[in-house]
Design brief:
The chain is α+β, with helices and mostly antiparallel strands and 307 residues long. It has 2 domains: 2-126, Aminotransferase class 4, branched-chain amino acid transferase, N-terminal domain (D-amino Acid Aminotransferase, Chain A, domain 1, 2-Layer Sandwich), CATH 3.30.470; 139-292, D-amino Acid Aminotransferase, Chain A, domain 2, CATH 3.20.10.10. It has helices at 2-6, 30-34, 56-69, 78-92, 164-176, 220-231, 243-248, 279-292; strands at residues 10-13, 16-19, 38-39, 42-47, 50-54, 97-105, 119-126, 139-143, 181-185, 191-193, 198-203, 206-209, 235-238, 251-256, 260-267, 270-271, 303-305. Strands 8, 9, 10, 11, 12, 13, 14, 15 and 16 form a 9-stranded mixed sheet that branches. Strands 1, 2, 3, 4, 5, 6, 7 and 17 form an 8-stranded antiparallel sheet that branches. Helix 3 crosses helix 4. It is globular, with a radius of gyration of 19 Å.
Length: 307
């Protein structure tokens, strides 16, 4: 269905627009074989006939930091890439979309070496709805037997393609066990994050989320929720979270560009709270949608207008 809808759309590819169906690379492309690409996930939202990209500059900044960690010279400035995102949305006449900037070694060879190899950048925009089918009612999670990668293995703060093999295998196991999604623990046994989401818990009215020390991706939606929670008078604590704390918390939810704010109503077959979406989760989800839709003027600086 996606490709049927997208064949007449365009992709920004190394500074030029090419048709979706013509944006091809060789089967031996290094990043396809070895997972050596970096990427971002960004969303645009439609509201009252307008379209806004949410926290575009922050996403592009993280994209550049991922490139720096992997010593990838992207040869485009942050402004050029941000402008390219807006231009691609306009070219495709998309108001509500998922946006994927992707940088990769576009070079056909066998071997791990990347010195002197060509780096390409693509910006893809696709129509996008809810990431989880059961999002409104809440989803079930399973604590994975697979640990979250850590900085001694791979840099978790780089949004690199290869990192997500760790996420994929955790998700596969969770879904085979009947859960909607996985939760990974750090090497020390503390709660880290979901396969593609940060995680929050509510305990006695306080919002708790794993800290950087748990080898999490420093999510931009995570940062948004922390700021919105504090703005609305909630106490927020970033710290190590023990596995058993998840079972006794009052509320839990995921955050992420794709997941947005997704309630978690059970973990390891244990109900979270009363097994329903909690009031603080609902409040923060509502506040989040107010911001991304441009309905909250206090956070208008987070929005880049497209149309």
């Amino acid at each position: 269905m996606l490709f049927g809808n997208m064949v007449e759309q365009y992709i920004w590819f190394d500074g030029k627009f090419v048709k979706f169906k013509n944006a091809n690379v060789h089967i031996l492309t290094h990043s396809m074989q070895y997972g050596s690409g970096i990427f971002e996930g960004i969303r645009s939202y439609q509201s009252n006939g307008n379209s806004y990209v949410f926290r575009l500059e922050d996403h592009i900044s993280r994209f550049m930091k991922s490139a720096k960690i992997y010593t990838m010279n992207l040869k485009f400035s942050e402004k050029k890439l941000a402008d390219a995102v807006v231009a691609t949305l306009k070219k495709n006449k998309l108001k509500a979309a998922y946006i994927r900037p992707f940088a990769f070694y576009n070079d056909q060879h066998i071997g791990l070496g990347v010195s002197g190899k060509k780096i390409s950048i693509a910006i893809i925009t696709v129509p996008f709805g809810s990431y989880f089918a059961n999002k409104e009612k809440g989803i079930s999670c399973k604590v994975s037997s697979w640990q979250r990668i850590n900085s001694m293995i791979l840099p978790p703060e780089a949004k690199a393609s290869g990192n997500y093999i760790n996420s994929i295998i955790a998700s596969i196991d969770a879904q085979k066990s009947g859960a909607d999604e996985a939760i990974l623990l750090s090497q020390e046994g503390h709660v880290a994050e979901g396969p593609g989401e940060n995680v929050f818990f509510v305990e006695d009215g306080t919002l708790i989320t794993p800290s950087r020390e748990a080898d999490i991706l420093m999510g931009i939606t995570r940062d948004t929720i922390i700021k919105l929670a504090e703005y609305n008078g909630l106490s927020v604590v970033e710290r190590n979270v023990h596995k058993e704390e998840m079972y006794t918390c009052d509320e839990a939810f995921f955050t992420g560009t794709a997941a947005e704010v997704t309630p978690i109503t059970s973990i390891d077959s244990r109900k979270i709270g009363n097994g329903k979406v909690g009031p603080i989760t609902s409040m923060l989800a509502d506040k989040y949608y107010e911001v991304v839709s441009g309905s909250n003027p206090e956070f208008k600086d987070w929005l880049t207008k497209v149309f």
